[in-house]
């Protein structure tokens, strides 16, 4: 949680956000483990302020400047994103960099099984996610000023190296399965096919705001991990979430009878995405999913480390992340070994 002077923050917002009046309220959203996010109100207007957390941070983590840049670039592409208004520097009343964007009204589905929705609506919700992901991956970075948004080539090789390094920097407990995964991913590295696009990096159902009344996407949120990369990374990451158990804090679809509930089968979902993009179904699918497991467990390891260091955005029940990380490493290894 940030400490700040209310009047100083109000003056900052009045200076940089067009039409901003008085700062009536600022309330932290309770969910999220990365960048602290606040709802701010000024008269009848509502905004979202998203900031880097206080304290010592990993060099490339919590990049609100990248979130701001990619959403601003995508504003005219048909990819639904909030309107962004202001990006600060590092010297701010909050003590860290922040951005201000529009508060998009709509629905966030925290349960991927969508138990409160009609059976036919569930399929339409997931198909909207599929269509939006394909639309994002069709955007040419150079046409929206993002040709320098990431390094070209060898995406998975660089990502495995990056997340291995970050995992080792934040490790808190010995975890042989994670060590095994780092070696397996390096030994089974897929060949670079030269494909590159804007990838979201954390594409899942609870990072999306849906229209209040229709199965349409109003805004895709949480672009902190976006970069130029391989589109199959986003697709496999979303499908990896569906393999996680439908229990506790995982929010997966593992064990759910998808056909009975009107939820998409993974193979059909991948095929629909490929049809929309006009590409062949991917080979080496297990590699992409195993990579997604390892990447997420490395991210969660960073969450655990920040919590132990007292810098977590949401510090509740930090001990649970140890069990989650260990289970993900075990499940990913089983997938790598047995398919």
Automatic annotation (TrEMBL):
Superkingdom, natural source: Bacteria
Pfam families assigned to the protein according to its UniProt record, in alphabetical order: APH (PF01636)
Assigned keywords, A-Z: Transferase
Coiled coil: none
Keyword Transferase: yes
GO molecular function per UniProt: transferase activity
Stated name of the protein: Phosphotransferase family protein
Native organism taxonomy: Bacteria, Pseudomonadati, Pseudomonadota, Alphaproteobacteria, Rhodobacterales
